[in-house]
Amino acid sequence: MLKSKTFLKKTRAGGVMKIVREHYLRDDIGCGAPGCAACDGAHEGPVLEPQPLDPASSLCPRPHYLLPDTNVLLHQIDVLEDPAIRNVIVLQTVLQEVRNRSAPVYKRIRDVTNNQEKHFYTFTNEHHRETYVEQEQGENANDRNDRAIRVAAKWYNEHLKKMSAENHLQVIFITNDKKNKEKAIEEGIPAFTCEEYVKSLTANPELIDRLACLSEEGNEIESGRIIFSEHLPLSKLQQGIKSGTYLQGTFRASRENYLEATVWVHGDTEEDKEIILQGLKNLNRAVHEDIVAVELLPRNQWVAPSSVVLHDEGQNEDDVEKEEERERILNTAANEKMLKPTGRVVGIIKRNWRPYCGMLSKSDIKESRRHLFTPADRRIPRIRIETRQASALEGRRIIVAIDGWPRNSRYPNGHFVKNLGDVGDKETETEVLLLEHDVPHQPFSQAVLSFLPKMPWSITEKDMKNREDLRHLCVCSVDPPGCTDIDDALHCRELENGNLEVGVHIADVSHFIRPGNALDQESARRGTTVYLCEKRIDMVPELLSSNLCSLRCNVDRLAFSCIWEMNHNAEILKVRFTKSAINSKASLTYAEAQMRIDSAAMNDDITTSLRGLNKLAKILKKRRIEKGALTLSSPEVRFHMDSETHDPIDLQTKELRETNSMVEEFMLLANISVAKKIHEEFSEHALLRKHPAPPPSNYEILVKAAKSKNLEIKTDTAKSLADSLDRADSPTFPYLNTLLRILATRCMMQAVYFCSGMDNDFHHYGLASPIYTHFTSPIRRYADIIVHRLLAVAIGADCTYPELTDKHKLADLCKNLNFRHKMAQYAQRASVAFHTQLFFKSKGIVSEEAYILFVRKNAIVVLIPKYGLEGTVFFEEKDKPKPRLIYDDEIPSLKIEDTVFHIFDKVKVKIMLDSSNLQHQKIRMSLVEPQIPGVSISADTPNMDIDEPERKKKKREK
Amino acid sequence: MAGLELLSDQGYRVDGRRAGELRKIQARMGVFAQADGSAYIEQGNTKALAVVYGPHEIRGSRARALPDRALVNCQYSSATFSTGERKRRPHGDRKSCEMGLQLRQTFEAAILTQLHPRSQIDIYVQVLQADGGTYAACVNAATLAVLDAGIPMRDFVCACSAGFVDSTALADLSHVEEAAGGPQLALALLPASGQIALLEMDARLHEDHLEQVLEAAAQAARDVHTLLDHVVRQHVCEASVLLGD
User: Fold this and answer.
1) Structural domain harbouring A914
2) Residue B20 lies inside a defined structural domain of this protein
3) Contacts of B206 in chain A (CB under 8 A)
4) Which of A24, A106, A123, A793 is the best residue to mutate to test the B interface, defined by the most B CB atoms within 10 Å of its own CB?
5) In a domain, A718, yes or no
6) InterPro entries attached here (chain A) (predicted)?
7) Distance (Å, whole) CA B212 – CA B230
8) What is the C-alpha to C-alpha distance for residues A564 and A55, in angstroms, rounded to an integer?
């Protein structure tokens, strides 16, 4: 086994330590080409094709393999990922360099390598006897690696020649480095730059667009004027951060104003600080979510966050003067108190670029190949790309990646990656919002599906081990209409001793999803089911979510039950948990359940059970509210879909019935009971959910708003907040309370999952519970599956596994789950917004009553209760004279001409669809009442040109 | 900076070995003439020297003598120049004491001590260069030294370490792999009977994986046995040639 290993020493002197490492060279590493007699039997994993013919290249007509160097891999990964590129040899040297330089690219290349169809082969050249290269005196590490790559390329060519003289198989070295290429050709290795090679692929012209434009010379065409100051090198930044002159933080561009951004300085010792950046030059080419180093400006240059809404609309780039003028708008005098620490970006510590969805804004010059790309996310700057298929891409949603941002360019440079489809098309738009929110939505892979149980499925003897048979109980489920993934069911019955037995039965998903397999990993990655308006992106395959795990009526299903014994005052006397088998007697909707409870004529088992539950739920709810649980409100709408076209035909705000809160109450109770149990059993690695109390400053807006209506809101504890919200009522203005609750919701923090061993604050603020977790929806949340597993171990119904008791792994999992949940929520909102647009598109222009939610410097944000729709009414338009606006931050109020707007004022607005910007079609609102001459518009004369795309108008003018 | 990748997707470790492969082992017996038995072993860059005296009469306090078997006395030390940074104290620190104790347990299990009641066997081990798996190297060196001294044993004692990375068990960890902080298991095996003389583990490892890691270590120990056996036979050959048989 150890035969013929040459022994070499590699000495690495650096710092104080001298490290001596062994480095074994082997001669049993295969070349990856099939049928190679020289390295027979050494092949493993995906292998190159014997006859790589398909990429018809005009440069090298012979069959060939590709061998890219590190920089090609790093920058042209989009090209390499294209299905047209196959049979690539990735050297270990290259892979290691990529690994050290960019984790995302490394991950992508690994995924490609693992894809059998791509025929990528990783050659371990550093440990191959004939391709190992020792660093020479005076040679730096980079040069050595380049040489190692060339040596490997040469070896390959000679090796393949030996193997098959008649095939003329060739290995082509791809490098963008001129010197490296020259040296390679000198050594007799066929070498091309990536651009040359891709351009020679006559069968795949679309690949050219995916090339990242890196050639420095290419960008000189633009004005040589330098707009941005230079980024400092990393070493200097680190020095500065250590000494405190610079601060490190995450760059967050403002959604509303492209000239403004904030940097969150993450420090453990000091509390999180926020620094404001204003103006293009101070933003200095940072892109949303980059990790940057900022320098604080002297105090006299500090500014206040502007309340102006500004969008980057300039069609033509590089008119910097105009930008400067715009920047001046921001610097309106603000009072001293409002000034916030202001800074400028001095360097980028880590770029967090990803591919962005958006649309092409075609250049005005017809023949131009350079076009601007406008991302769907407003926080991302526009990107300049080069493409020959602009007309084909116009009006399409496309994906673009950023390559770089030179100092003399107003916009970053990028390249085209993928075409998603037509704008406005429902499929495309859904795809876009899923991609933008990073929601994994591909169909489940074969590997995942292979772990599903075989149909027809039934409960077997083995399944009943450690399981109680509760099929005789009168269990029923209550859900919204049309629900197919029923994960909870309830029962209630009177015991002989006069007490009540209440059971919550949750689908036993963890019975089907076993830890560690592909199905489990995929569900963990997805984290949650995402509900869009007309679509559901399942976390687990449909067979489980809508069939085997769904607790439908009159079929035997496996469940995890939480059973309490309660007295009639809803005090818990006993609680026990057990895996069980149940047979639901009825699946009801909320309305049906309500009807049963209310109608005196019905007295069957199910109805009595429901009445018992309802009675207990009321007591539980009352007790919970006494403890200080908050009832908040958010306007939620539901669309009625046309059954054929799936277009929304009507909107309706969600209705709440008693039965909704009945189910909710028992779910909360089950979650709390389970949380207590698992924390008792696993104090270090229980997965729990907490909701931190918001900092008092969050409530400022709420308190101010209430004050303007002469109401007092106390925010010192959850209890006092709940009480004061209850008291805040105005007889003349019944909707006020709801508005206040909506505002209060906005003040809250995000609830998060966490691992009990990593944190010591467990409190759930909103529910006023000292401990909480998620147990009741394992079909749609992965956290619940983990909680099920923990609980199963705690009651001895299932065995444990390594990852379950590793608190760091659990903490990582929590991080992913929190991220997925947040993204799912955003995606949901985006989907609602899109359908609202479709709805108003079909409905035309309507006028509705609305309430002011926030007042901004040049706009008001209003809420239309009828549609649960929120929108902004702008008072400044591009081509119209500006009205006189006076903004008062203290009250807050906005005075336009002679009319003053306060928070909660009732106004009337006109709603229409604004398609002037195809990318962000939006609901546009304009003021109808109160009437202000020159600002408001009359209710019946529609502003005709709004529905027409602006660009068309421009053309006509020309 | 991304940390080191201990096991590549292609299944190669940092130094080019596969998961179950040992480092290169070279060993010699009878390196010193004055001692009763001695041996030197190199396992990759880990180098250890073992010297055995005895069995002889109890030195020092007579009270320590055992009526039914021999006393095994083990001392471990590691040279001040054995690691990257010069060590202050070559022996007598806690780690050395513990290692001495472990060696003693290992060899009490292997040497037929009941054949030499009221006597003493001294085993001195010194690590000249440490690059992971010092315990294993010490045991292997000591085995050869005990054999060289002609002290009857039940079997060879062969030791090897094993670790666990990416759900794969790695045999014979080097210093880089040990320093990564994963679980590490040291096993001393009597290969003929498959009995375990000593088993020790650092860091946490889930019960489910233990068998896999244990099997990897045992297989590695059996491989070590093959090599040591070869060394012993060669040594005996050379010795008999010298004796002129």
Assistant:
1) 844-957
2) no
3) 801-802, 805
4) A24
5) no
6) Dis3_CSD2, NA-bd_OB-fold, PIN-like_dom_sf, PIN_dom, RNase_II/R, RNase_II/R_CS, RNR_Ribonuclease, Rrp44_CSD1
7) 28
8) 67
Q: What is the DSSP letter of B21?
A: P
CATH label of the domain that carries residue B198: 3.30.230.70
From CA B47, how far away is CA A797, in angstroms rounded?
A: 51
Q: Which of B12, B44, B209 sits opposite A124 (nearest CB)?
A: B12
pLDDT in tens, A759-790: 888 888 888 888 999 999 899 899 999 999 99
Query: How many domains does chain B contain in total?
Result: 1
Q: Is B245 on the interface with A (CB under 8 A)?
A: no
Please check the confidence at residue A916 and state whether its pLDDT lies above 80.
Answer: no
Sheet containing strand B158-165, edge to edge, reads B168-171, B158-165, B184-190, B195-202
Distance from CA of B243 to the nearest CA of A (A): 32
Could A124 and B10 be called an inter-chain contact, meaning their C-beta atoms sit closer than 8 Å? Answer: yes
CB A253 within 8 A of CB A259: no
Question: Which helix (H) or strand (E) is A360 found in, with range?
Answer: strand A356-361
The residue of chain A nearest to residue B173, with distances taken between CA atoms, is: A22
Same domain, A201 and A226: no
Cβ–Cβ under 8 Å, residues A835 and A648: yes
Residues A352, A499 share a domain = no
CB pairs under 8 A between A and B: 66
Give the pair of three-digit tokens for residue A735. Answer: 């909707």
Write the pLDDT tens digit of every residue in A195-251.
888 888 877 777 777 777 655 444 444 445 677 888 888 888 888 888 888 888 888
Query: Does A686 or B125 have the greater pLDDT score?
Result: B125
- Rounded to the nearest angstrom, the gap between the alpha carbon of residue A13 and the centroid of all alpha carbons in its chain is 43
Of A550, A576, A541, A435, nearest in space to A487 by CA? A550
Work out how many domains chain A is built from and give that number. 4
Orientation angle between helical segments A782-794 and A658-681, nearest 10 degrees:
50
Specify the pTM: 0.63
Question: How many residues are given for chain B?
Answer: 245
Tokens 């940057």 belong to residue: A292
Contact status of B11 with chain A (Cβ, < 8 Å): yes
pLDDT tens, position by position, A536-589:
888 888 888 888 888 888 888 899 999 999 988 888 898 999 999 999 888 888
